[in-house]
Amino acid sequence: MATLWAAQALTDSGWAKDVRVVVDASGQITSVTAGAPMTADTISDVLLPAPANAHSHAFQRAMAGLTERRGPNARDTFWTWRELMFRFLDRLTPDHVEAIAAFVQMEMLEAGYATNVEFHYLHHGPGGHPYTNLAEMVERIAAAASRTGIGLTLLPVLYQFGGCDRRALDPGQVRFGNDINRFAKLHEQSATALRALPSDSVVGIAPHSLRAVNPMTLVDLVELHPAGPVHMHLAEQIAEVDEVRAFVGQRPVEWVLDNLTLGKRFTFIHCTQMEAHETEGLARSGATAGLCPITESSLGDGIFDGDRWLATGGSIAIGSDSNIRIALSEELRTLEYSQRLRDRSRAVLASPNQSTGRVLFDAVAKGGATASGRATGAIKAGNWADLVALDHGHIDLEGRQGDTILDSFIFAGDDRMVCDVWSAGRHIVQGGRHVARESITMAYRSAIRELGEAI
Ligand code: ZN
């Protein structure tokens, strides 16, 4: 049992002052009381629900900064970047993956996220040969979560083909590949591996994309796994939309709307290439859009139609995908700024009653809960104590109250305002730093030294 007290907190019923939050030994919130006296184990200035990071490929963190040169092609694109990424991952060992995952999770926590939703597709050894333990890489990611204390939602990925024509995986993709039977075994072993973690961990499924999975297998896979989150990359690139249309006869969003029984368990990653009817249809389906604005900017994916999506009542979550930067405030700022640049407008995602920062923060806290399959997203009894405290002494928060705190955090500040983070009650960021920062960083430094710059 632990008690927290905050001068201001964004609770499930809005901003409140002098708030006491009681957390039980399992990490669940048991009570939230406003107007409480300042007696507690931990005292904070500003307490917020800590969102889930809804989309990550942890290993890509180690290639941040290595892909910013032009190759021999007329244009560098997502597809040329993908070739570099395939070459890079060929050298990764399980030890590298564990060290990188721990560093990524630590950075997520220090940025204010409480949960890592890991879209995990690097399953096998070089040449595509499975490790003696099929779930070796899963166990390494789970070991990293055990080390960092982050909440883990693990999504083992089904990756069958090199493209919509069902061609064999190319040499860069063979470490991802499974047929449906081996995937079933891997999924079962993933669930077993997560039992070693605290009870807030979650396992789901991730059919990679309509490029990499037979559409009919996808329908069967969803039926075979009736519970838990389902994530899939969808409509990220124009060439992807064209390829799906050529082989399946419909644009990817049109296909999922017609062929899957959609609802809250589905999160579609990116959705940067949608027409208006697709945006409205998918928003109404109850599915969450998993947005990764920094990576989508880095890869030149396009701009998500956030204005239309939110106006239709759609759910959004935020993720760091390639992990080129892990920064909660910057992801939200980039999302809003992409809308402003497109529309030559301001405060695009704000509502008449709520500021841009409040709308964005509320949306990704709630959408992140849905996407991660986790009882979180609001400071209320019964939820996991996924909490982030901001330092009100930061110069850009001086005198700020209520929603203006969120606007200042997202648009004027950065993650240095984050001082404490709890994941399911585990108090693992204190004074702005993860409690095991030094050893996690040392292991990561050693991994990137071994990997070098060659790509
Ligand atoms: Zn991704």
Textual characterization of the structure:
- By secondary structure, this protein is α/β, with parallel strands linked by helices.
- The chain has two domains: 2-48 and 381-440, Urease, subunit C, domain 1, CATH 2.30.40.10; 51-372, TIM Barrel, CATH 3.20.20.140.
- It has 14 helices and 17 strands.
- The protein has helices spanning 78-89, 94-111, 136-148, 180-194, 215-224, 238-248, 252-259, 276-284, 293-298, 306-311, 328-343, 356-372, 403-412, 437-451, and strands spanning 2-11, 14-23, 29-33, 42-49, 52-56, 115-120, 151-158, 202-203, 206-207, 230-234, 266-270, 288-291, 315-318, 387-390, 418-423, 426-430, 433-434.
- Strands 3-2-1-4-14-15-16-17 form an eight-stranded mixed sheet, with helices on one face. Strands 5, 6, 7, 8 and 9 form a five-stranded parallel sheet that branches. Strands 10-11-12-13 form a four-stranded parallel sheet.
- Strand 15 (418-423) and strand 16 form a beta hairpin.
- Helix 2 runs parallel beside helix 3, helix 2 packs across helix 14 (437-451) and helix 12 packs across helix 13 (403-412).
- The longest helix is centred in the N-terminal third of the chain and has 18 residues, at 94-111.
- The mean pLDDT is 96.
- Zinc ion binds next to loops.
